[in-house]
Specification:
Helices cover 34% and strands 23% of the residues. The N and C termini lie close together (11 Å). It folds into 2 domains: 9-107, Formyl transferase, N-terminal domain (Rossmann fold); 115-141 and 159-193, no CATH class. By secondary structure, the chain is of the alpha/beta class. A 7-stranded mixed beta sheet has the order 3-2-1-4-5-6-7, with helices on one face. Bound molecules: glycinamide ribonucleotide. Glycinamide ribonucleotide (GAR) binds at residues 16, 18-22, 51, 92-93, 113-115, 176, 179.
């Protein structure tokens, strides 16, 4: 990613669909002096996303595009991002697949966090599948987004050990705690900080 110029932070949008714990964590990180990014926009495809509360809490603009009118909403989303001079997009539990056109426009500037050790366990229900396959380890990955699902270049990963009494819920909780440390690390890494 291009180096930082002066003290200006890189304008970033976070895309969510659900709880938004990664969003909250990224906002807190962005407020630190060492953070190269500022969070200037929150985007959701789901008006009921719990994470949208952080828009009000942290006074960040929010936009909901439900993509019922796919082409129209993509145009509106692209215009919104352009108008706000958004340079980086962090997907944080955003459960909608972005179009090839969208990914092309923001090539190399969209990051995603995924709750598995990619390339293993792409897609949904990762923790259930990890347990069914009796894996010894799982974890989380931050990667650049490419047009293939959960397949872009890996930036950073964190591995955690599966315990005997683990359930998908328990693993999800431990992985999420690691995600909150990993996403800021990934951002520092792509800016060589
Ligand atoms: C996180 O565990 C994230 O890795 C996962 O959704 C959760 C969102 O939690 N993302 C995916 O599964 C994407 N394929 P949050 O809303 O509390 O940040």
């Amino acid at each position: 990613m291009a180096p930082l110029i002066g003290n200006k932070k890189i304008k970033t949008a976070v895309f969510i669909s659900g709880t938004g714990s990664n969003l909250k964590n990224l906002v807190l990180f962005s407020k630190k002096k060492l953070s190269p990014i500022s969070i200037d926009l929150i985007v959701s495809n789901n008006p009921k996303s719990k994470g949208l509360v952080y828009a009000k809490k942290f006074k960040i603009e929010k936009k909901v595009f439900n993509f019922k009118k796919r082409v129209f909403d993509e145009k509106r989303l692209l215009k919104t991002l352009k108008d706000r001079k958004i340079n980086v997009i962090c997907l944080a539990g955003y459960m909608r697949i972005l179009s090839k056109n969208f990914i092309k426009i923001f090539k190399g500037k969209i990051l995603n966090i995924h709750p598995s050790l990619l390339p293993k366990y792409k897609g949904l229900n990762t923790h259930k599948r990890v347990l069914e396959n009796k894996e010894k380890y799982t974890g989380c990955t931050v990667h650049f987004v490419s047009s293939k699902l959960d397949s872009g270049k890996i930036i950073i990963q964190k591995r955690i050990k599966i315990k005997k009494k683990d359930t998908p819920k328990r693993i999800a909780k431990r992985v999420l705690m690691e995600e909150h440390k990993l996403y800021p690390k990934a951002i520092l890494k792509i800016f060589n900080l």
